[in-house]
Amino acid sequence: MGRERHPDDLAHQLQRLVLRLGRELRAHNAGAGASNADAMLLAEVRHSPGLGVSELAAMENVARSVMSERVKRLEQAGLVASTPGADRRRIALTITEAGRDLLEHITARRRDWMAERLTALSPEERLAVQVAVTSLERITGQARPKTQNLRLGGKTRCEI
């Protein structure tokens, strides 16, 4: 039997917030020239040049055939390029200049949207968001390599 959810349950609140933020960010991706899934794929290829279709499919938890179609579409659009790998059955993907430009455009739109929202917060609230982001990075396995002191008004407010 599952645990009953309460509106005040932190895990439930966080899940709802992440879903809402995801929807908002996807909405700001509309009209940019690539779907949210395509932007994620471009980012993966940019960060790890030489990835193959199988690796991308595993990362995105989709069938290899689905990823192959997505890659083919991005390749036809000139956003990624493929080269044969050491094993003829494998291809190595790299992002093209056009793909990099598109990804930078999408990223800038999203960052601008988020930065605008953050300006509505007080300095203390922005600090709280920073602490939350750092904590969320830790629980997703993307923690920063070393501890940082967060400063607000010249005073160390907390250590993370």
| Number of discrete helical segments | 6
Helix content, binned percent? 55-70%
What percentage of amino acids are in beta strands?
5-15%
Average of the residue pLDDT scores: 84
For the record, the count of structural domains works out to 2
The CATH topology of the largest domain is Arc Repressor Mutant, subunit A
Strand order of the largest sheet: 1-2
According to DSSP, the number of beta strands is 4
CATH superfamily of the largest domain: Winged helix-like DNA-binding domain superfamily/Winged helix DNA-binding domain
- Using only CA atoms, what is the Rg? 20 Å
> Which architecture name of the largest domain does CATH use?
Orthogonal Bundle
Q: What is the CATH C level class of the largest domain, in words?
A: Mainly Alpha
Counting helices, strands and paired strands, the structural category is mainly alpha
Key features of this structure:
single chain, 160 residues, mainly alpha, two-stranded antiparallel sheet, two-stranded antiparallel ribbon, 6 helices, 4 strands, 57% helix, disordered C terminus
Please specify the SSE layout and strand pairing:
Layout lengths: L9 H20 L6 H12 L5 H8 L3 H13 L3 E5 L6 E5 L1 H22 L4 H17 L9 E4 L2 E5 L1
Antiparallel strand pairs: 1-2, 3-4
Helix pairs in contact: 2-5, 3-4
What does this structure look like?
By secondary structure, the chain is mainly alpha-helical. It folds into 2 domains: 26-120, Arc Repressor Mutant, subunit A, CATH 1.10.10.10; 122-160, no CATH class. The protein is 57% helix and 12% strand. A two-stranded antiparallel ribbon has the order 1-2. The chain has a two-stranded antiparallel ribbon with strand order 3-4. Strand 3 and strand 4 form a beta hairpin. It is globular, with a radius of gyration of 20 Å. It starts with 9 loop residues before the first helix and ends with a strand. The relative contact order is 0.09. The model is unreliable at 151-160 (pLDDT under 50).
